[in-house]
Amino acid sequence: MGEIKPPPEATGAPAAQPSEYLSDDPRDIGWVKQNVPCQTACPAGTNVPVYIREIIERQFGRSYETNREANVLPGVLGRICSRPCEAQCRHGWPGNGEPVAICHLKRVASDLKDAGHRITERLYSPTGKRVAIVGAGPAGVAAAHDLSLLGHDVVIFEREERAGGMLRYGIPEFRLPRSTLDIELHNALRLGVQVRTGVEIGNQDGQMPMSRLQQEFDAVLLATGCMAASPLPLLGEWEKRELRSMEGVEYGLDFLMEMHRGMEKTVGKRVAVVGAGFTALDCARVAARLGAQEVTIHIRTAEEYIPVTPEEIFEAKREGVRIKGLRTPVGLTAEGNRLTGIDFVQNRLGGWRNNGRRQAIPIEGSEFHEPCDTIIIAIGQQTANDYLGTKLELDRWGNVRIGVDGMTSHKGMFAAGDYVSGASTVVQAVGHGRQVAKRIDAWLMGRERRKQVVRIVPVEKPLRERAFDFIVRQHMPTAHMDERMRDGKHEVELGLDEKLAFEEAKRCYLCNLRYQIDVDRCIFCRACIEVAPRNCIKLVSGVEIGEDGAYGKLLETKEWNQVGAIWIDNNECIRCGQCYTACPVQCISISRCELTEVEI
Amino acid sequence: MGDTAKKARHHIIVGSGVAGSQAAETLRECEPDARITILTLSSLLFYNRYDLPKVFRGHRDWREYLVYPAAYYRDWKINVRRCSRVAGVDARRRVIALDHKEEIRFDTLLVASGGRGYIPEDLTDFRPLMHGFSSYTEAMSAANEVPKKGHVIMLGGDMIGLDLARTLIDTRHRVTLVAGPNTFWPHEVDDDERPALIAALEKMGIEVLEGADAGGIVSIEEGARGLSARRVVFRDGTELYGDVVMPFFGLSPSVEFMLGSGVDIERGLLVDPALRTTTEGIYAAGDVCQIWSDAERRYRFYYGWKNVRAMGDLAARNITGSSDPWVPAQDEKLHISGDGKIQSPFWEYA
């Protein structure tokens, strides 16, 4: 299966071993996308099974580098990633237990690599092209790194005093220590990327006009994120009232950014946080550290549906934060200009929105009141475009519209990250930053210079044992409550030690292993079926073929006269290796299939 | 297979407590030919959890607690599958998956899995050092650890715990209550009512320490050799020594196996007044469900033996064709009687 090519001489990928080969056959690429759900779910395309396997082999530095090929901030994302991979992990599928702690293992690679670890970068010759990036957040940094590797001269313009964007100014230190952030930003930008901080793009005095960037650079990438807090939609007399001037009213992102810029923040005794994302949770946990006696997060739907990891919710609750569901704020109460409480309406759950979130439907006549001294509004962020000095085509949500080439409606002006998608996650921003960097490179150079292939490596024997399937998910050790509250910055999650990491890594099914039966050699003895722990080996009369040519749904049969083949359903397979061991005629083969990039 | 058997529906009930058992009985009355299966995590048949304080009076034989003999289930053709942990529910396929990978099809499902003792998240690290009281096994474990006239440190003090405290005082044990916001749960007690109620507890012989006054619990530790088995340390340096530490912070609905099933959940399963969940064919009853209250315009829990039994009965009637709304079966007012004793409707059971 797949086009077999000899290892190319000057590919960007490491030299292929003699027994391995690279395939650009869409069926092989389709197989990986279908069968390695964690990697497919990762917006940055992180090669999860490979880096976990490297942890099992205690090759922490190599594991870190595998991560870094897809995402330049493994230590950062190993702490604060929203983990779309874990939601898709085969180990978490019904009947298989809990997903592998993929994110925690990413952090393991970062934490346990040698102190003198050598970073590997594959550099292209200088191109003489200059790229300006506006915004040193995760999308901007990821794009800058990749563009600099590709030989372009990159300058980042950042309005804050330091690089990092949302990572530095929006995420509290107890979730992301600044030492980790500083090291990884430094490593990402050390290949000649110039970072000009304290430079604001705009048309007012003291600001750098966008037109100048367009003149001085061959391409401009806008990666300014979503930094404007969404207003709280209230009803009645509160509908048009300006809330910012009220005492006791804070906007979540502004609250965090001001704190991280060094401003001293205070909250009342009773704090109400309105919102359901990481920012809301971070604000609540910061409020608890600032001495609030009662911190409640009010959400429109229910805990099950909020886009935050269960661990974060649990840790917030340990810190005394309460979560109350099925309520929407409709008004505030105040004495003079000082907030005294919030009026809510009770909700019921509605259908699903297009973005995968649950709808909340207010119930008429169910209004109620809850007193509080401080409200922190963290219901989302929006993009701000007023600094551009020029009109770009926007989509219906007010975000900048880009084409498949990553370019906005202005030639040479690209956009990436939250600035395009609206408020999303760090890993999405990193992934999109990399994608757009590739598009910029193609536009500057007049051609694509890298393409995706599948590296297929024969594997001699199963890499897992059946016993690994019964290991339970290892829990992240956390800091004692007194330490957490002492200075408000102490990191809460302490990281897995080597022993815990090894146990957790063993749980990974290594879904990139493809088990196949050679039907010509199979004697249909059913030994593999007898030992299979799941319904993963099937007698089939045929196979559906997908649009990309990849094999799809199996057409099972129980009639021997219709059996066309005995087939391993890689979707059901948990790569335990029982079939391989039981086969008396060695007709089962194993190969490792991993997506990689090579030079065209 | 005869025609009758072909038409017989399979009703599965998850949970063998008051709600589940009552539902099974009503289902059998309403639908004599139906197939009824109860899935329970417990190794015991339906037993009276409200009687569990009696273990401290020396009643330790599990048979004393059974509500019905085993023959009852045979006679009523109710299949009880004990030690069965439900792993998940596929509402679309109408299939329940058990932890040991077995799948069971159902026509209707009644979730009556109840609740388990809630432990505040900041105390979960100390779970191994605490003794629960939500099952016969846990009750026996606690009773075995407490010596004669021993000292029980009770955290939280919900009405289940205070019921136990009455027995413990009566059996000459020492009880120290670390009171907090969950004291008297599920009663909602106003700030102005609380001092009198706390005083009534003290009059009963319970020593009361307001946890917040001591800055909250910092840790629960094993006591040193020669001293009591447990030590509770407070932020202000206060220390309590006892033979066991028992958490009573109310109940947390057992809904984990329903996550991802498609049924709407807030804290409990959300049901309409007819106890129907948002998924056709799936009902909920007892401590696991939040019922929509037209009067209060919100979803809310209803606790207590009478309420829970009535819910089991109502759910079964509605599963078999009725469409009756929920009407609470008991009042919720906590009060102090003329002789100065606390009286709670949650302590009343048949």
Description:
- The complex is a heterodimer of chains A (600) and B (350).
- In chain A, 29% of the residues lie in helices and 22% in strands.
- Chain A has 600 residues and is an alpha/beta fold.
- Chain A starts with 20 loop residues before the first strand and ends with a strand.
- Chain B is of the alpha/beta class.
- Chain B has 2 domains: 3-114 and 254-319, FAD/NAD(P)-binding domain (3-Layer(bba) Sandwich), CATH 3.50.50.60; 118-250, FAD/NAD(P)-binding domain (3-Layer(bba) Sandwich), CATH 3.50.50.
- In chain B, 21% of the residues lie in helices and 25% in strands.
- Chain B is built from 7 helices and 22 strands.
- In chain B, helix 2 runs parallel beside helix 7 (305-319).
- Classes of the chains: A alpha/beta (600), B alpha/beta (350).
- At the A-B interface, helix 14, strand 12 and strand 13 of A face strand 4 of B.
In brief:
The complex is a heterodimer of chains A (600) and B (350). With 600 residues, chain A is an alpha/beta fold. Chain A is built from 20 helices and 22 strands.
Specify the overall morphology of chain A: globular
Assembly classification: heterodimer
Global outline of chain B: globular
Query: In angstroms, what separates the terminal alpha carbons of chain A?
Result: 22 Å
Superfamily (CATH H level) name of the largest domain in chain A:
FAD/NAD(P)-binding domain
According to CATH, the homologous superfamily of the largest domain in chain B is FAD/NAD(P)-binding domain
Strand order of the largest sheet of chain B: 3-2-1-7-18
Low-confidence stretches of chain A: 1-16
